[in-house]
Design a protein that fits this description.
The chain is an alpha/beta fold. It contains 12 helices and 11 strands.
Amino acid sequence: MFGKGQIKLGKIFGIEVALDLSWFIILILIVWSFYSVFTATFNSNSVLINLGYSLLAAVIFFVSILAHEISHTLVARKNGIPVSNITLFVFGGVSSIEEEPPNAGIEFKMAIAGPLLSLITGALLFYLGSIIRSHELAEIAFLLRSLGTINFLLGFFNLLPGFPLDGGRILRALIWARTKNIMKATRYASLSGRALAIVMILLGIAQFFFVSSFGGLWLVLIGFFLYRAATASIAETRFYLKLKNKNIGEIANPDYQKIKSGTSILEILKLPPSQIYIVEDNSGIIGLGTLPQLLDLSEVEREQAIDTRMIDWDKIPRSDAKENLSISIKKFIENKNEILAVYSNNLLVGFVQLKDVLSVLGVAKN
């Protein structure tokens, strides 16, 4: 599932890949940075040649980021953990791994896969750039060495022990293995992540004011992003622990009525009350309406056919009755919808509304 503001690229190893529109911000910055370096290093080249090398460098750089994320997802899937998609955005990439790992060992393997691949990629690119001796390929050699160095830096940065960076996840895995308590491990890793974020913010401010470098602002932005993500990780883990042993089918409500297309809302409200009304025509289910939604209409609006007020059926996300609630709740968020249709063996068994899931979590709707 992809939200608004994202461009779907396709599938790699069966995993959906998308670009968030914010990715174009970092694309421009990366191209501009490489272009500046190429212009200073190869000042005899034309603008178009240096721009072409800069675009090539940016493409290879983002392929390496994508490979970094794919390494995480492949390890996750190998260990039976579902992965819905990978999204590239302004701060790099993120894999939508649907569940927490079942144990510290798998968490460690998933976390270390990305940095290891970045370090190996960095070594390979730098080696290739170093063995090229031809003067005619000087730009290619320089490009490969630069990308090798960047991948090294990317790998080492991700190994910093601040959650949710890979190094923070490695730290959580080690604490989890020692304490046998994922919640305690998450709190310590989150604390480390927030401390690292504060250091990055302070360094960025100092760099901006004392070195007059706009790179300091970028460091500040990354620090704020890391701080928010580290803080949110505690709540996410707590929610997951509440949901991990519950399936969506356990809270599915079978209280729904079938209504013929064209029936007026007024007629429906005269029937014995039901929480959900599914609308059918000769082709099958075409939409649904909820009782609170219909009761909220004016007398004039109630004279209209249900078809004018129903939610189209193809906009209703669906879940298997055995699906874990932690996965189902993400469908509410991704679809910005407040109702799910629940199926068992391809048969509709009921519906779950957002308020039902929030009731299980014990949190208010807002």
